[in-house]
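Work Package 3 (structural annotation) set out to generate three-dimensional models for the target panel prioritized at the project kickoff. During this period the team completed the workflow that converts sequence records into discrete structure tokens, so that structures can be stored uniformly alongside our sequence database. As a representative example, we reproduce one entry of 168 residues exactly as it appears in the project archive.
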Amino acid sequence: MKPVLQVFAFAALFAVLGASAHAQEIKAGDLVITQPWSRATPGGAKIAGGFLTIENKGAAPDRLIGGSGDFAGKVEIHEMAMNNGVMTMRPLDKGLAMEPGKTVKLAPGGYHLMLMDLKNPLKQGEKVPLELQFEKAGKVTVSLDVQGVGAQGPAGAGHSSGQHDMKK
């Protein structure tokens, strides 16, 4: 029985350590930013998407109003939505609201950062520094973890509990 308990304890410790390795949190005022990531781009591609989760733990609203990075000529906040059966994408010229007590997820197919005029392809395994600009919290630098082409989320996200995202 003792070896079984040791294996169980090791597995539990591994699960905790594995989960914390992917639990990067960046704080900007009352905002907590987690899981910043992007996708690798094929050679010659001039655009990419940036994704992350922002939680407003404060009592006042804030707004993501822009971003910048040395790797891209321009960073915009965009929204993708279905309108009458047609997928549309538009820039959010006034930024993206962060309501108190709410979490906003920037993910493929919804809100995202449009990384334009890329100077070089984004390569899987890279960490790309990106500065975000908030109306109240100010500037904060995050590091986008570059995943594989076509990735649907950051590596390890949602896997520490044994659940897998099966959406295609």
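Residues 1-22, 158-168 have pLDDT under 50 and may be disordered.
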